[in-house]
Amino acid sequence: MNAARTAGIVLMIAGAIGLAYGGFTYTKETHRATVGPVELAVKDRESVTIPTWLSIGAILVGGALAIGVLGKR
């Protein structure tokens, strides 16, 4: 299996996951103040949405790489 086919399969899997979940959320902890032994921290929830067009594009380009349309020169 060559590198282009492997990259194509990875792109198709990533595109399918992007379509299935539509995005992800993570928590970012920021330290705002430290007063003596007391530390005040703020946790912010950030969410990232993955556009549908990007997921579909990844699946299409990955499929083209996997079958060899874009991998040959």
In short:
The protein is of the alpha+beta class and 73 residues long. The protein has helices at residues 3-21, 52-67, and strands spanning 23-35, 38-49.
The H/E string reads HEEH
Measured by DSSP, the beta-strand proportion falls in 25-35%
Number of helices: 2
Rough outline: elongated
Q: Tell me the distance between the termini.
A: 17 Å
- What are the segments in which pLDDT stays under 50 over at least 5 consecutive residues? none
Share of helical residues:
40-55%
Mean of residue pLDDT? 88
Strands in their spatial order, largest beta sheet: 1-2
Explain what you see.
- With 73 residues, the protein is α+β, with helices and mostly antiparallel strands.
- It has one domain (3-67).
- It is built from 2 helices and 2 strands.
- It has helices at 3-21, 52-67, and strands at 23-35, 38-49.
- The longest helix has 19 residues, at 3-21.
- The chain is elongated and about 65 Å long.
- 11% of the residues are buried.
What's the topology here?
Blueprint: H1 3-21, E1 23-35, E2 38-49, H2 52-67
Helix pairs in contact: 1-2
What attributes does this structure have?
73 residues, alpha+beta, two-stranded antiparallel sheet, 2 strands, elongated
